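A brief tutorial aside. Many learners find it easier to grasp structure tokens once they have seen a single protein encoded end to end. The record that follows does exactly this for Phosphoribosylaminoimidazole-succinocarboxamide synthase. Read the sequence first, then the structure, and try to relate runs of similar tokens to stretches of the chain.
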Amino acid sequence: MTEPMITTDFPGLNLVHRGKVRDMYSIPGHEDKLLMVATDRISAYDVIMNSPIPGKGAVLTKLSLFWFDLLGDIVENHLITAKVEEYPEACQPYVDHLRGRSMLVKKTKPLTIECIVRGYISGSFWSAYKKDTVVCGFKLPEGLQESDKLPEPIFTPSTKAELGNHDENISLATMEKIVGVERTQEIADIAIRLYQRASDYARERGIIIADTKFELGEVDGRLILIDEVLTPDSSRFWPEDLYAPGKSQPSYDKQYLRDYLSSLDWDKNPPAPELPPEIIDKTRERYEEAVRRITE
């Protein structure tokens, strides 16, 4: 296995953003494009871990490319190409590092809203429900158990936080004040349609997509699907054959890592604790199993 990619450095390209996982570069002479590189960094509770997950960036890229293709008729996406030989000349010295973990994409204006769709009640949504059956402005049925399927998928937006801070769930009414009533409805409709198509497909392959987060941007006023799509970083993937409501579910995503971190005496703020080799290996195996089940 090649060395994990923790950070990137491509002289001749301009680093414009370093996120929890992805590094974004502008390319001289191509102002309408960006190079998006998925590293092997992993975050949990909005904190970047000190230890990478080898091969993770390649898994995220392969899955995103698969979903861009499957969902392309629902909404336009930002992908130009993932074939490194077709990248601009300034990228060519780095193709060995970029192959399999990068995309050349259209430059967009990202929305300030995270587009979350939930088909099952889990995570922070379950924690909120236990306190009040009205969550993010939605009145949910009484008596739901952890991991229960919701009557229908719901769109629950959040505001984007700066690196190191936590995103904040908001109601649709609050979102309407930020982006307008019509835009809110358009975004919600797109997100629900994307989730339903992907959820139906994954279910045929033995995976439940409990919830997921989409990123949308704008180009000339049009909504564009951007960033990663339906990966173990942005979604909860549960094996259908082990699904049992009433408890937390085994998963193909980073919930395994979160569960380990929750067992520690750690306040979920930097610095992150060191990860034991077995936690790194088990997390990597879950990511690889997700991409195998969905794409093969």
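Self-check: The mean pLDDT is 94. If you spotted this yourself, you are ready for the next section.
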